[in-house]
Specification:
Chain A: This is Translin-associated protein X-like. The complex is a heterodimer. Chain A has 11 helices and 2 strands. Chain A is mainly alpha-helical. Chain B is built from 8 helices and no strands. The radius of gyration of chain B is 23 Å and the shape is elongated. Classes of the chains: A mainly alpha, B mainly alpha.
Chain lengths: 307, 235
Amino acid sequence: MRMVWSNNRCYNLKMAARSGHQRGGHHKRNYGKDRVSHQKISRREPKVDENSPIIASFRTYQALLDRKNDKYERLVKMSRDVTIQSKRAIFHIHRINSGVDKATVLGEADEKLIAVREKLCQIALELQGEDLYQFIRAVSPGLQEYIEAVAFHHYCLGQGLVSLTQVQSALEFPATEKTSSPEDGDCPSHPAVTLYVPPVEYMLGVADFTGELMRLCITSVSSGDMELPFQLCQFMREVYHGFSSFSHAGSWELSRKMHTLRQSLHKVENACYTLQVRGLEIPKHMLADVFGSADSEDTGERRSDIS
Amino acid sequence: MASAPTQETFSKFQEYLTKDQDIREEIRASVREIEQTAREILTVLQGVHQPTGCKDTVSICKRSREMFTNIRRQYSELAAKLPAEQYYRFHDHWRFANQRCVFLAAFLVYLESDKLITREEAAELLGVKERREDGFHIDLDDFLMGLLQLANELSRLAVNSVTAGDYSRPTKIANFVAELDAGFRLLNLKNDALRKRFDGLKYDVKKIEEVVYDVTIRGLNPPPAQKPEAPTEEQ
């Protein structure tokens, strides 16, 4: 048993050197070392060896588990990148109100989204031949953030709510040839892959997107746009209407987002109300002040929500 | 009031949710049946803990093995209800049933042959596929969970076989569980449910070792092979 034990350690160190990802493994090993019971066994049961069928079968289980866990970690990492890049695209779209030309802003945001899709293509490759739902917990945050960004971009282009089919078709990646251009480095070829978007993930992304609309509404008043809040309010009502029609609220997550959506809608409706009642009385620069205070409140809340 | 395309998106999703719900209902019904059969098999297998059970292990195994035909049929029904490639979408519904069934199969194989069940044998006994690629299978985590349940059950069996006067069994069980423990140590477990369950394995090992100890210091178990002339009190 002793002998086998030291073998295991060697094996694991080798694994660590190869995969480079071994945090969990180390924990486990240290933990195992502290345990005394194996010494007790070793005195009476020295014959556990590599030839035992049980040990042999556990070797295969070990390989399978490691493979799965490594894949999961890689996906978490990629998903995190997708989240960050999508967030940046969203922040970029919010600059619409700051006086920059709308078309330029949206064009730049589009470029950012293309970069995000490259990452998503890698995720799709990683998931090739796997059951997406097995790794959904790793992929889900990034995917939702991406959908949020796409929906926001799509809406700002004046095309209404992006549909699941549109999101899905953007995530079908054609096969590429191996290119090794000096500036891009080595770009290995990959077969055609599709990243399937589960409808629930799509809906959760859409729910997040309404939060962005609320922010856009508040900031647009500050910048003097009196039309946009009413348009946004109308659109958010439609979305809210759609969400409230889901019979059993789908999942726990969906009903929680529904609650947030309701709050966002409330804020936008209040803003429209104030605009309607007082918009004609107060000079525009003062109106900006009224909403300016409301805005800082909202964004503060929003930020704590993100972090 | 809503524009047509937006409305359509939502009504499509509602459709999807309704379908999803229907599939879940059907799966739940199937899993309930499997759980029911598993309980029946467990009741039969529990017979080995009875004082008389040690003697008719063979007949108990035979009876429970026959009952596995029901499980196989129920699993094939369940697999038929499942959309292709969506095993993990509904995994939570049958996770515990799978663990229980693997445990029962492993217990049965152990009682019959003193061996650890392989994934292949388990898949065959339950009428499912061994690998994910081939269709409805038993998730590796669930399989390992089932083996940990087996260790727990064996620690009980060690105690009860002594009570029933079978003094040789605890040593055999101790060797087996020690090897199982060595096997589990090979795995790099994450901090999840499996790891938690594995942490309980040492108590089972300890319990069985205590039984072996008690039996050995009283000279009750058959002596080691090199000293065949040593006296024994019973058997």
